[in-house]
Design goal:
The protein is α+β, with helices and mostly antiparallel strands. It has a single domain, classed as Ribosomal Protein L22, Chain A (Alpha-Beta Complex). The chain is built from five helices and seven strands. The strands form two sheets. It has a four-stranded mixed sheet with strand order 2-3-1-7, with helices on one face. A hairpin with a 5-residue loop joins strand 5 and strand 6. Helix 1 runs antiparallel to helix 2. Bound molecules: coenzyme A (COA) and zinc ion. The site of coenzyme A has 21 residues, from helix 2, strand 2 and helix 5.
Length: 221
């Protein structure tokens, strides 16, 4: 499904959020062999839970769309660089998605154009000035000087998630140039996720997308 040329309507994007406490052991039954291996390899319970929630949101949302049980949705995680199963998730032509997890939140965005979703927990201990020099443009560094303390960490994290969302949308990953301006043809916006985290969505589209935010409580119950 693509928005008709000249229709004026932005491309639709659905963003689903779950909280880490919503993970349940029984979700693991729907994982495929590749996902079972990734799940087993995580050492910390919270990493297991975030991965499990990302997979479960992906499988349940797509399962509903495709009228398939979650376990029957076929996902390709092959890394285009090295062939290991840790890359951007691909499902079928015309279906684009992006998974993100940090702190208490797990999110998945679905659309019909390449897109990137990123969430980061705000770290109050972060040495903002040190990381800002590596990740931000001169203008952005300047802008950050207006803030202090936790507000500065939040402002930096907002910039960071925007940049990560862009490199996730283009597929460049962290090797993309974070200090560069957003390339033409990519729309980036911040998503409100509460004071403890910052989140952003980037979509490869000229017009602002029509974003629908969904709470996963029912989907995960
Ligand atoms: C992708 C990347 C930006 C993720 O950033 P992060 O903030 O640490 O983690 P997030 O939770 O937001 O995102 C992780 C998810 O991004 C997706 N992802 C992985 N690689 C991706 C890529 N190159 N582009 C877009 N999305 C990617 C995956 O779905 C992954 O979650 P999952 O494995 O649980 O499904 C970062 O890890 C990166 O740049 N990775 C690739 C770098 C690289 O060298 N790749 C080659 C490896 S051989
Ligand atoms: Zn790889």
């Amino acid at each position: 499904m693509t928005a008709g040329a000249g229709s004026g309507a932005g491309t639709p994007v659905e963003v689903w959020w779950a909280r880490i406490g919503q993970a349940r052991a029984e979700f693991a039954a729907d994982l495929d062999a590749v996902e079972q291996a990734r799940f087993a390899a995580y050492v910390r319970d919270e990493d297991k839970d975030r991965f499990l929630l990302g997979v479960t949101l992906t499988r349940r949302v797509l399962g509903r769309r495709l009228s398939l049980p979650a376990a029957k949705v076929s996902l390709d995680r092959t890394c285009e660089e090295c062939g290991k199963p840790h890359g951007k998730v691909r499902v079928a032509a015309g279906v684009e998605l992006s998974v993100t997890h940090s702190g208490d939140l797990v999110g998945v965005a679905f659309g019909d154009r390449p897109l990137g979703l990123d969430v980061e927990k705000v770290d109050p201990q972060l040495d903002v000035d040190a990381v800002a020099r590596i990740a931000l443009s001169a203008e952005e560094v300047q802008e950050l000087q207006r803030y202090g303390g936790i507000a500065k960490a939040r402002a930096f994290t907002a910039y960071w998630t925007r940049k990560e969302a862009v490199v996730k949308a283009t597929g460049a990953g962290l090797r993309g140039d974070l200090r560069a301006a957003v390339p033409a043809g990519i729309h980036v916006q911040e998503l409100a996720v509460g004071a403890d985290h910052r989140a952003a969505l980037a979509v490869v589209t000229a017009e602002p997308p029509v974003v629908q935010v969904e709470d996963a409580t029912q989907l995960l119950s």
